[in-house]
Amino acid sequence: MQNADVATRFEELADLLEIQGANPFRIRAYRNAARTIESLSESVADIAHDDDRALTDLPGIGKDLAEKITTIVDTSSLPQLEELREQVPPGVLDMLRIPGLGPKKVAVLFHDLNLTSLDELKQAAGEGQIAKLKGFGPKTEKSILAGIEQINTIGRRMRLAEAKSLADAIVADLKSLKTVKQISVAGSSRRLKETVGDLDILVTSEDSPQVMDRLASHSSIEKVLARGDTKQRVRLHAGIELDLRVVPDESYGAALQYFTGSKEHNIVIRRRAQERGLKVNEYGVFRNDELVAGRTEEDVYAAVDLVWVPPELRENRGEIEQAAEDCLPKLVELKDLRGDLHMHTTATDGSASILEMAEAAKSRGLKYIAITDHSKRVSMANGLDSKRLRAHWKEIDKVRGKVSGIEILKGIECDILEDATLDLPDDVLSEADWVIAVLHYGLKQPRDQINKRLMCAVTNPHVSIIGHPSGRLIGKRPAADASWEEIFKAASDHGVMMEINAHPSRLDLNEIHAAAARDHGIPIVISTDSHSVNGFDVMQYGVFQARRAGLEKKHIANTKTFKQFVKLLRRQ
Question: Which of 56, 289, 310, 542 could in theory staple to 526 by disulfide, Cβ–Cβ 3.0 to 4.6 A?
Fold first, then answer.
């Protein structure tokens, strides 16, 4: 039982409870538990069975939640969840896959209109029934229809963090077989796309049946859908499918290149091969019937006069031309990061103190952090007004005197309000070391107003950075509509940085906008938005996003030493 499996069950439990109108604090406890488990770098199953550890030591995990985690780990199920599934039809949960449609609105559709499937929802929206509901309206009805069409087009997709966790666990299990020589994840998961539709694993082995038997018995597998001599397709409990292919040693590199994709990248590779009198497919590179390359990916690329291309860049966005000139970027790595500049404490909605967050960051090798609790607009998170914020900063000053080896900046995550003003006055913001301006509310406002709000922050002399700039939640809430080129130009002119928020549900900026910000000369900061001491573990996903954008160490502000970063702040 993987962390993603446990977290997914708690998320589903929270969704079902919210649809049923349960206690908000109870719902939040399950969501916080899911977030804690998802961000753990170690196996929650191992902790549950470790006599020297206790699940209750994890942030936000009390006795009741610990018992539920143990039940899930030991039985792969949870009685409370099974009961709720019987009360709420599965088609109701499918509605949550529609961007912008959360549990509260789904509850209205379920209870008020008795809608129990996407087909029924589509019919009701087509007949204009949705627009009549309180809190919906014609625009919401239209977006629901568009969302249903999107779901039908792309099918179910899983966030990278969940997919990678599952794939890595399966790979580790198969790799333990002595007959497995080489093994790798392929597909969009290897390219580290922010969402994954299915999984692909390639293996070289002298005993194909043994590898397939091992996969079929893995705890993550719900059902074997098809099995042949060298290929097996299975469905995971998490809802997505996985293809296992056993390939010859001499074809491993070619198969890995082929099945990693992307389709657009591979089309260009095949075209280059044809221009050289070659043919490329999953079996190798051929001149007529002669195999000339295929054992490694490097061999495949060399055959078409290219250097090896990192999987994250394989989208046909200029990487082929760069590989032909041997001038691909040296992509940023997790080890390059020295600071984390977005995190929360018990002063608002975090689960750890200032001191605990500082010590946790230090233990991970970080040299500097910024404490950035919420401003007052985020009332549900107990956001800080001017008086409480100044008192909070005094507490940070006290902690600075207790911790050596790490620098602590006094910061704030300040909301950009719907009327295009900031949530705190300038005289307060001027006292901060680090100000993150963010959009949390009113994300469906027209583009002109969103632009006005972002420009309000970008042109404010006290704002350091725009955090999770688009405000999106992957698969749940669409990005705000903004004129990004205009915003980036202004940010460059005014010395305001841009964030890649590393939380797997955000990954915001996306890779396209992150590359555009880089092209404007804007320093990028990769931050975790940690709400607990384990929240730092998601930093890798922000690095993945930066790599997909083609960013190097020099483009990331928090790869600099603290002295260099402070100079950059002053220069900005």
Answer: 542
